[in-house]
Structures are given as structure tokens and as C-alpha cells.
Design brief:
By secondary structure, the chain is mainly α. 73% of the residues lie in helices and 3% in strands. α1 packs antiparallel against α2, α2 runs antiparallel to α8 and α3 packs parallel to α6. The chain has one domain: Rhopdopsin 7-helix transmembrane proteins (Up-down Bundle), CATH 1.20.1070.10. A 3-stranded mixed beta sheet has the order 2-1-3. InterPro entries: GPCR_Rhodpsn (IPR000276), GPCR_Rhodpsn_7TM (IPR017452), Olfact_rcpt (IPR000725). It is a multi-pass membrane protein.
Length: 296
């Protein structure tokens, strides 16, 4: 039980990605370039799909949702992370920390669900707009549940977060009240989302591979191109789900803050940058898969 006279901190101190001063500026340049690329590609795609009537198709509307989520998802984390490379005192307000965590969970779960549904049926699922709205609603409920549990915790012993953003695990480490229920909820719902997403994605790509293998020999070149394209999609999904699974679906006894930071770089910075490059530049080739599949 938390002490009744415990005073909640008004700010948290973020330790950042590294405390090595010689790495601060190089990392700032690298992650700033990644962030700018992420914003330009994702917001560019979002705007282009909005204004081009020819792109008002199920496939591109779905891609627009993913691009918007990626841009927002990256913006929740990256600006504050970049600031930690420049500031001597890396602080974030208590309210800002809670808001950042809520937004992070909302957008990361939305990303998971969007990628899973796109893997299941990338090009027709969006024909039912309620599906996409339902994905965001599920993500909102999940985020609200975890954030509500976080608000019940007390932080009396320390306000120093060994991370570059307000993630749940480093907050658990400095909590002066019991986090057993919170950890259980994170594990149960995290495992549930991951299992559903991974199974649906694997099943979808198994059918894709089987369809490619059924293509006649004279169409082998086209089949190989389709397979390579879809393999690149699967690679990004694997990176995203794998990094999240490594961070949240593991026993607390094996948790490592430094490993968590490295893992977080993948799912907060790299995947939002890679998604529009893979899904937009090479997406058309996978449409051929449906056309070929319908002929066999």
C-alpha cells in the first residue's frame, strides 16, 4: 500500500537513450533525419490520398489510416526524445507523462490492429468503415484501461525514469505502490493482442505463399515479384510485433532497461518510417496476387 502522505511528483526526469556525451549529437542527427523522413512520407501520403480522387479506393484509404497513425505515433515519442539529447535537465511533467503514455498505447495498439487487418485482407477490409472505427475504439479502451491503472500508482521514492519516453515498465520500477495488478493486465492484454495479430498475420501469409506456389510456371517471374513484395511487408510486421513482444511479453525478472531502450527504437522510430516506403512504393504488386488467385 502506498503511504497516505505520499506527495505525487510534479515532474519526471528522463534519463534518455544514452548518457554518453560523445553519442548525443550523432544520435540527435540520426533520429532527427528518421523523424523528418517519417513525417514527410506519412503526412505526404495522407494528404495525397485525401486530395486525389483516383486514390479513393479501399487499398489507399486503408493505407491513409496507417500513414496517419504512423505520423502521430512517431510524434508522440520522437520530439521529446530529441530534446533529451540537448537538455541538461531532461524533465517531463506528470500530466505530460501520463498523456504521452496514453497516446503511445492508443496509437501502438491501433498500429498493431491495422497491420493485422491489412495482412488479413489489405484491400477490401476498408470497404466497411465501421471496421477501422472499431479498431481505434478497441485501442482507445485498451489505452484507457492501462492509463487508469497507472494513475492509481504512487511515486514517492523517485521521479527518475531510465528511458527516453514515459513507458509503463520504467514507471513500474519507480512506483512506491504495488504494480502486480498493472503488470498482470499488461501481460494478459498484451499477450491477447499479440497472439491474435500474429496468428491472423501468419495465416494470411500462408495463404499468400500457397497462392504464389500455385501460379503456373510461365507466371513464375510474376509470382516471385509478388512473393518478394509481400515478404517485405511481413518483415516490417515481424520487426514491429517482435519488438513489442520482447518489451512487454516477458517475465519481469528478465526485464532489462537497456535492452528495452534498443527494442523501443525499432517500434517507435524505425517501423513508422519503413511502413509508407514499403506499403506505398511496392503495394501495387500485391494486388496482382488477388487477380492471379481468382484465376486459379
Amino acid at each position: 500500500m502506498a503511504s497516505e502522505n505520499c506527495t505525487a511528483p510534479t515532474t519526471f526526469i528522463l534519463s534518455g537513450l544514452t548518457d554518453n556525451p560523445r553519442l548525443q549529437m550523432p544520435l540527435l542527427v540520426v533520429f532527427l533525419a528518421i523523424y523528418i523522413t517519417t513525417l514527410m512520407t506519412n503526412l505526404g501520403l495522407t494528404a495525397l490520398i485525401s486530395i486525389d480522387i483516383q486514390l479513393q479506393t479501399p487499398m489507399y484509404i486503408f493505407l491513409q489510416n496507417l500513414s496517419f497513425t504512423d505520423a502521430a505515433y512517431s510524434t508522440v515519442i520522437t520530439p521529446k526524445m530529441l530534446a533529451t539529447f540537448l537538455e541538461e535537465t531532461k524533465t517531463i511533467s506528470y500530466g505530460g507523462c501520463i498523456l504521452q503514455y496514453f497516446s503511445f498505447v492508443l496509437l501502438s495498439i491501433s498500429e498493431c490492429l491495422l497491420l493485422a487487418v491489412m495482412a488479413y485482407d489489405r484491400y477490401v477490409a476498408i470497404c466497411k468503415p465501421l471496421l477501422v472505427k472499431g479498431l481505434y475504439f478497441l485501442a482507445f479502451l485498451n489505452s484507457l484501461m492501462h492509463t487508469s491503472g497507472l494513475l492509481k500508482l504512487s511515486f514517492c521514492s523517485s521521479n527518475v525514469l531510465n528511458h527516453f519516453f514515459c513507458d509503463i515498465s520504467p514507471l513500474f520500477l519507480i512506483s512506491s505502490s504495488s504494480t502486480a495488478l498493472n503488470e498482470l493486465l499488461v501481460f494478459i492484454f498484451g499477450s491477447l493482442f499479440m497472439v491474435i495479430n500474429i496468428i491472423s498475420t501468419l495465416i494470411s501469409y500462408i495463404f499468400i505463399i500457397l497462392t504464389v506456389l500455385r501460379i503456373r510456371s510461365k507466371e513464375n517471374d510474376g509470382g516471385k515479384k509478388i512473393f518478394h513484395t509481400c515478404a517485405s511487408h511481413l518483415t516490417v510486421i515481424t520487426i514491429f510485433f517482435g519488438a513489442l513482444t520482447f518489451s512487454y511479453i516477458q517475465p519481469s525478472s528478465s526485464y532489462s532497461v537497456e535492452q528495452e531502450k534498443i527494442s523501443a527504437v525499432f517500434y517507435t522510430l524505425l517501423v513508422p518510417m519503413l511502413n509508407p516506403l514499403i506499403y506505398s512504393l511496392r503495394n501495387r504488386k500485391c494486388i496482382v496476387l488477388k487477380e492471379v488467385s481468382s484465376m486459379h
